[in-house]
TrEMBL record:
It comes from Caldalkalibacillus uzonensis. Gene3D superfamilies: Rbstp2229 like protein (3.30.310.120), Rbstp2229 protein (1.20.5.850). It comes from the Bacteria. Pfam families: DUF1885. InterPro entries: DUF1885 (IPR015062), Rbstp2229-like_sf (IPR036294). This is DUF1885 family protein.
Length: 147
């Protein structure tokens, strides 16, 4: 059975909505950061940190893309998509549109895929200052919260 993690863009996030191009830019920045770290260390860390190729299918245009692993024994694939849903604000009872980024581990994904997916989700949640709902159902808050 596939598993999903959600990066929810809440009111306190740096942006209230994101599209696939935004997510790809964040992943490109991640790749750039890790390659610079690798240069400083003197080895190809970028390939170990992001062992995937971004693949876009025509049927997923604007909604999702998938990351195909470069080493099929360790990393197979994961799907990254964007969407929105209507949520009820607890304090006021009003409804509002909440955008999210969803990372899906399909059947057949490896433990390496899950580790990398958790890493990418945490990076994206921190970059957007968002609320992260992990694959195991736990929630991490990367946005400033009221005491």
């Amino acid at each position: 059975m596939s598993q999903s993690a959600y990066i929810r863009l809440v009111k306190e996030s740096t942006v209230t909505s994101a599209d696939l191009d935004d997510v790809k830019q964040k992943l490109d920045h991640y790749i750039s950061m890790t390659s610079k770290t690798g240069q400083q260390l003197g080895w190809n860390y970028a390939e170990a940190a992001f062992p995937y190729t971004i693949v876009e299918k025509p049927e997923g245009k604007g909604k999702w893309f998938y990351l195909k692993g470069n080493n099929p024994e360790l990393y197979k694939y994961m799907i990254v998509g964007v969407g929105s849903e209507t949520v009820t604000v607890e304090e006021s009872g009003q409804e509002r549109e909440e955008h999210y980024i969803q990372v899906v581990l399909p059947d057949g994904a490896t433990h390496g895929d899950k580790s990398k997916a958790n890493e990418f989700c945490k990076y994206l949640a921190k970059a957007y200052q968002a609320k992260l709902q992990l694959f195991n159902g736990r929630t991490m808050y990367y946005y400033p919260r009221k005491p």
